[in-house]
Design goal:
Elements lengths: L6 E3 L2 H16 L19 H13 L3 E4 L3 E2 L11 E2 L2 E6 L1 H4 L3 H4 L6 E6 L5 H13 L7 E3 L4 H10 L5 E4 L38 E4 L46 H5 L2 H10 L2 E6 L2 E6 L2 H9 L3 E2 L6 H7 L4 H7 L10 H9 L5 H5 L2 H13 L6 E3 H18 L6 H12 L8 H21 L5 H10 L6 H14 L2 H16 L1 H9 L4 H11 L9 E3 L3 E3 L2 E3 L4 E4 L1 H4 L34 H18 L4 E2 L4 E2 L8 E3 L1 E3 L4 H8 L1
Parallel strand pairs: 1-6, 5-6, 7-8, 8-9, 11-17
Antiparallel strand pairs: 2-5, 3-4, 10-11, 12-14, 13-21, 14-17, 15-16, 18-21, 19-20
Helix pairs in contact: 14-15, 14-24, 15-20, 16-17, 17-19, 18-19, 20-22, 20-24, 22-24
Length: about 650
Amino acid sequence: MCCAPNIALVHPEIADELTDRLTDRVLALQPGFPDDPEVLLAATPNTAGYDATLADARRTGARVLTGGRHLDVQGRESDVAVFAEPALIRVDGLARARELRSVRHETFFPLLTLAVPRRACDDELLAEMVSFVTDGAYGLRNSLWAQSPEVIDRFVRDVRSCGQLRVNDSHLAGVPFLSNHGGPGLSGDRFAELNYPMLRTSRLQGVSVAQSAPPSPAAAAYVPAQPRPRVEAARAYPPGWPPEELPGGLPAPFTEAFHHDPYPTLHWLREHRPVSRVLSPDGPGWLLTRYDDVRTAHTDPRVTCDSKRIPAGLMWLRHWPSELRERLFVHLLDSDDPRHAELRAIIRPFFTPARQEQWRSRVQRLVDARIDRIVERGRGDLMAAVACPLGGNVLFSVLGATPPRMNHLRAMIWRTAEWNNDVPYVEALAHEVDAFVRGAVAEKRRCLGDDLISLLVRARDQDGLISEDELHGLVMMMLVAGQDPSINSVGNSLHALLAHPGQLAALRDDPALLATGMGELLRYESPLPFTSWRGTLEPVEFGDVTVPADESLFLCIGAANRDPARFPDPDRLDLNRPTPGHLAFGHGAHYCLGAHIGRMTAEAAVSTVLRRLPVLRPDGMPRWRPSMFERGLSVLPVAWDVPQKVQQGAAR
């Protein structure tokens, strides 16, 4: 925040001890969810600025004592994480300190620069440090820790380029009768903080000098401040959640253990209860695991996709603000015929196979650019380095929208799209998604192009084929649902090949095998194991079971694609297996319009990774991301042999 200190000038005599103690404190700061009372670190919206600031510090000879990594909410390093590791920079010499980006510019991420002047007598040091402070361009608040009354008097007399002075007191905490802002900060234009009506000034507004009172024998014992209580998220799981295990200790559907490896449970259900009444975090419903049943439910007119008519959909939607729920959930995935067919007809010209094929060279360039960044490392996380940024870049190229901060976007989408959102800030994230959609549409209206959002804007503004709500809803749908299938297809395919060395070797020997092999990889580990919610409008028969009207349906694509009645020996990965009719991208009227781009993206990533990262092998434990609708990895650590040409280039 703007009042927080980002520079500390430290007397040389205490600099080493302060640096050591502060480093220990900073290393103890960890990320986490905001409802945890022990968590102080928040996600940063400016990881690019953070990276650039640390790179500048190293380039100018300063010491980066802590920081530099992007962390996920568990504190694990990841290129797509949204937490910046708290950073501490030390620079010796105030002249050098003035050159640092972290000193010259305001920072809004967890970073503090310790500037230590060269040794001199105290009078010279004080003059140099006061001069350094008064030359600052921002100056919202300055603080001092000192014992000498003469030093305090000189500080209060000479430091005027700020809104407030603090002496021997917290730099950040509020003080009664003093404003919380003010001063000639650059953010306030030439009138500085005058744009705050309650301040009415851009001059020095107040001085706070804390003095220690002599100890009193009658004084009460010091009682430290109590930690704030944990803020529990409002959880509304259905009665009986979590459900009991199935026979043989198999985890029930939708539980954490089920997400880790769903196939044993799905096999048992398909054999013993193919149309099974189950409990999900969004309420009870009927789980379909046979290929024929899942395929039929995709096309039966008695089955609806409208989440506002499905019990589980209504329970899920309760987390969204009512205004956004009514306005945005009018898109393809959330509508039935005839409106669904009309919306699909508007978008279909953008997704013809010929048009999608035009993206092949662009996708290949994106893949090569990602591999270029990691090829000489010899190890890395393929999800963070390849799959996630590739999926995001392809999506925003299709949309024609300016890419946002991708790390932040990933966390935002995963939170808002997941089942039974139980985080207390999901409403804020939903509004953030809405704000991005509004901004993207407004930007495109100023300059139409040959992209998907432009097509939708023309359909609204020129042809009157869709409403403003449908325009925003369709963009939101693509934003939330348009990149994860590609990301999961890349990660799942590479993971499946690494787990089957024989098939990996066969593909290396014959790259043309990917023509049939990609369909098999999608079948074997479907990127979306479940469709979005479905529901029955009337009683519907699946085999000898009739599902009543007004019931939730859970269509399990992952189980259908491993049904032995359709695909013999379904748990065996066979890149030579023909897979016509697999359901990885759905079926019928709701078959994914972007399936060709998704498949092409996965093909380009898999073939390029195998070609450019020789002797690819696992290098740690992969982690699956808990999700109801998706089957995707969060981490896929691998190692490879650095290509000889890269080694020779580095040597030269």
